[in-house]
Amino acid sequence: MRVHSFHARPMRTILAIAWLVVLLSACGGPSPTPQIVYVTATFTPAPVILVVTATFTPTPELPATEPPSSSLPPPASPAPLPTQPPAETPMAPPPTDTPLPTATPEPPTATPPPPTQTSAPKPTTPPPSLRSYFVVYTAYKGPDLQDYSLWGMNGDGSEAFRIEGAGPASEPAFSPDGNLFAFYHWTDGIYVWDLNKKTSRQIVHDGNASFPTWSPNGQRLAYFVAAGQRWIYLVNADGSGVQQLTPGMRPYWSLQGGFIAYDTCEQNQCGIFRINPDGKGKRQLTSDGGGGPAVSPDGKRIAYWSRADGDFEIYVVNADGSGMKQLTHNQGNDALPAWTPDGKYIYYLSDQNGKGWAVMVMNADGSNPRKIIATSAGTDPVRGWQYQRITVTWNR
Fold first, then answer.
1. Same domain, 374 and 283
2. Which candidate in 114, 182, 348, 384 could, as Cys together with 212 as Cys, close a disulfide (CB 3.0–4.6 Å)?
3. What stretches of the chain show up as alpha helix (H) in DSSP?
């Protein structure tokens, strides 16, 4: 970088003029009246021009400035005061030919991931209307022990009708697709009713066979024979391939998990048991004398009835035997639990604390019990209401 200085010569001219004036005054007439001559000179400092270059190329020197003429330049007008910019507005730098240094860009900062948005809880879907279900239940007219009949209705109790073609029948059980139900026909064995054709066919020719239940794929059924030592059997849906499984009563085939729940007594311990269709995995779940198990659609819970508190009430237990809970708390009889296909409700039979038999419904947790329709039930201690059953599927 070079710095060049250039000096003009206006001061020499001013001094020469001042001496000339003094000499003229001394050479005037005799005793001239002395005069005071005020010579005012505006001192203009010699400008110093600084040339700053940003490169190493030397800047050529400027030629010397010629001295100003004898006429003095008019005094410069005072520069206007700069206007003070607003405090919040930064002043722009004065223009310059020298390029401003370029700021080195900051390395890009990693954009932080957006905060995880917690989705608002979805509104709870209300349970379907009871009319969404179709219910088949057993009614007992009497006085004969075999005077049972099957009835169908909407889940809210409307449009109830007797299934005439079934004859004297009880213990219905819907197939997994809801198109068929099996039942016990008094007194000659197990039949299957076709809801679309409104016809029935017999698959088990044994008057003591009862409580049929369907496998998850609808290809087989389980049932028990109520004569002598009570045994559970398996049979194909066409009536072939009968095989003995295990001692027990009132089997219920789980649609999920494939196990079969039932009630029996072993080593003086009565309650709910479970077993696999191949005869393996047998285990006892309760020891409260309960019976009539019904497995929830997801295979996780089993509803049943028991006299553990002195009268018949409905209980629920997990499929592994844990978490037993009493659902009804009445002075009369509550039994025959049946799950809706979505597991939201449980239908059951109740004498309403002695006021009369009725098909009832409650939420799956036991809350909000209410009457659906009046019915009748057998009171025989051997083949009374314990041989009735309720079954539920989707309405069509």
1. yes
2. 182
3. 10-26
Is there a single domain that holds both residue 234 and residue 334? yes
> 379 preceded by cis ω (within 30°)?
no
For residue 159, being part of any structural domain is answered with: yes
pLDDT < 50 regions, the chain: 1-11, 13-105, 107-108
Please tell me the predicted confidence (pLDDT) of residue 146: 81
The residues pairing with 358 across neighbouring beta strands, listed in sequence order, are 350, 374
H helix or E strand, kind and range, residue 306: strand 301-306
In this prediction, residue 105 carries a pLDDT of 47
Site of tokens 């709870």:
124
User: Domain for residue 41, yes or no?
Assistant: yes
Number of structural domains (the chain) is: 2
pLDDT of residue 109: 52
Element (H, E) at 220: strand 220-225
- CA distance linking residue 309 with residue 380, whole number of Å: 22
The helix (run of H) or strand (run of E) holding residue 372 is strand 370-374
Specify the DSSP class assigned to residue 297.
T
> Which residue segment(s) compose the domain that 46 sits in?
1-64
In a domain, 48, yes or no: yes
Q: What is the pLDDT of residue 114?
A: 55
Each residue's pLDDT tens digit, 340-377: 999 999 999 999 998 999 999 999 999 999 999 999 99
Q: Is the peptide bond before 143 cis (omega within 30 degrees of 0)?
A: yes
